[in-house]
From TrEMBL, chains A, B:
PROSITE patterns: ROK (PS01125). SUPFAM superfamilies: Actin-like ATPase domain. PANTHER family: BIFUNCTIONAL UDP-N-ACETYLGLUCOSAMINE 2-EPIMERASE_N-ACETYLMANNOSAMINE KINASE (PTHR18964:SF149), ROK (REPRESSOR, ORF, KINASE) FAMILY (PTHR18964). It comes from Candidatus Cryptobacteroides excrementavium. It holds the Pfam family ROK. Coiled coil: none annotated. InterPro entries: ATPase_NBD, ROK, ROK_cs. This is ROK family protein. It comes from the Bacteria. Belongs to the ROK (NagC/XylR) family.
């Protein structure tokens, strides 16, 4: 009987990106029953945006016949603060900017009082991986998202680390290169994400092409992306292969320091760039083990996300709601 | 009545160092009622050592009239594993070496079944500071011990981070200098503790004296210690002052990365070198803030331990026992 009740409970996952917002209805097994997408960037005013989100939700709740069975809503959003439910100074959102938006409260009001949990996208991804994915059963791991930037979600003793202010886990902005490091969007230099994000990989390609005469299929391209570098590596292009070696080495060096902090069972990689795992895994492992204290050498796993990429953002956000 | 019962409960704190072992009886207010010291390094066999510890304890329990009122024993020991109660591969202990010693179990047997909690010294210091010292009321902070080495204890959400294996928080062995860094006792290079421990400061002094002709009172000394550098700084010696600036800068740079991990309210400094706070505070703050993401700039406190140094080790270890 208990199982019956559990199986008939659902959660909503909402992933807010700069351009689009994905949302879906998820069951206890991590199946997405129904999903939809709306634009994020056509709204200047958050009230109108929240109304549109609520309307879209109503539709997929009806479609999935889950009326009255929704346990809560989980939201992954840039600069989302778990403690307050606010989205703070999210300059990448057209309705965000230099202000504090009580997003969880607004959404709860528009959805008949459903409970809403909110955090940033990387923390949501960590909870998703722990609930449905590669980190099931793990109580200590670090999620690293390798996308346009480098995000992170840190899990200690089965719980996401939010820190004093709700914003812990900004490992993409730890220092990878101390002297003459690349300038980061955040205003600092040498940040991990300037080297090891999708944009960082493209930047490495452009720098190396400028600095050498080495032949490479990448030379013929106008606007190099990390996907181009990946395709070139698959075709055996030497420079492309070396770019992934360089990227993996920096990741591994930084991972060793992360391990010294929280002694995780594993580091879980997710995001577009993590697709290049056949080129990243070995250099990451080699550099990480070379920089670990003896007691951790060859003991820390590097694993790749097991969530279907099209569902991952929704699943991650939805997993937060099970904890409400 | 409840207060009465509480005030009549005591805990034992034991701090195991390579040379000596300090132990004391502590009340709920952090007063050390009675304490004693025995040698650690005259025993090759852990059984004999544990018997000696138990005998010394019996004596101070009698002295403080706390028979039958001991709630438990907390132990701070190198390579102490909180999860298992074992001391693992502690090469600095004459009876430690390449083996796993079930220390908590052994001590419990010899003390009539008292409960024993064990962790490493830096974690014990963090619990002590949270219970009796500068971190009272804080739920998120990082303890950094600046002694012969650099140790750390990380507190997240009111609990020490032990990680998957019990050994989390080795921030002294994160990388401070990536290229041509100093060789560390751990076998790696560039570790924070090769620069910012007491021995690291002395090493900086020797290096700088070798590399330049700059006049300094330190030139006249045979075997420079960090204390010599501190005394010279107090006398206005320019090189000594610059050594602390250099040390504080490296600490601040590394602290910025630690903040990106766990977003602590404060970083608490403890240990012999922390006595040089008048020379370390400003350079730490400047370098930390220059390397923090904007949202954390000027918001993270650097505070110094408030525990009396002669009692601190015992207090830290004893605080563990309140949680038993």
């Amino acid at each position: 009987m208990d199982t019956d009740i559990l199986e008939k409970t659902y959660v909503v996952g909402i992933d807010i990106g700069g351009q689009t917002t994905k949302m879906g209805i998820v069951d206890t097994r991590g199946q997405v029953l129904s999903q939809t997408v709306i634009r994020t960037d056509t709204y200047d005013d958050v009230s109108l945006y929240v109304e549109e989100v609520a309307a879209a939700l109503e539709k997929i709740i009806r479609e999935s016949e889950s009326e009255g069975k929704i346990r809560g809503i989980g939201v992954g959003a840039p600069n989302g603060n778990y403690y307050t439910g606010n989205i703070e100074n999210a300059v990448n959102l057209s309705w965000g900017g230099q202000k504090t938006i009580p997003f969880a409260e607004l959404l709860s009001q528009k959805t008949g009082g459903l409970k809403v949990a909110l955090t940033n996208d990387a923390n949501a991804a960590a909870v998703g991986e722990m609930t449905y994915g590669a980190a099931r059963g793990m109580k200590n791991f670090i999620m690293i998202t390798l996308g346009t930037g480098v995000g992170s979600g840190i899990v200690v003793n089965g719980e996401v680390v939010y820190g004093h202010d709700g914003f812990a886990g900004e490992l993409g902005h730890t220092c990878a290169v101390r002297h003459n490091g690349r300038v980061c969007n955040c205003g600092k230099t040498g940040c991990l994400e300037t080297y090891c994000s999708a944009t960082g990989v493209a930047r490495t390609a452009r720098e190396w092409l400028d600095m050498s005469d080495e032949p490479s299929v990448l030379r013929s391209l106008d606007n190099i992306t990390s996907k181009d570098v990946y395709e070139a590596a698959k075709d055996g292009d030497r420079m492309a292969l070396k770019i992934f070696e360089f990227t993996g080495k920096i990741l591994g060096e930084c991972f060793a320091d992360f391990v010294a902090f929280s002694a995780p069972e594993a580091i879980v990689l997710f995001g577009g760039l993590a697709r290049a795992k056949e080129y990243l895994y070995e250099p990451i492992m080699t550099a990480m083990n070379a920089n670990l204290l003896h007691m951790w050498r060859n003991k820390i796993k590097i694993v790749f996300s097991q969530l279907k990429e099209s569902d991952a953002a929704i699943l991650g956000a939805s997993a937060l709601a099970w904890e409400l």
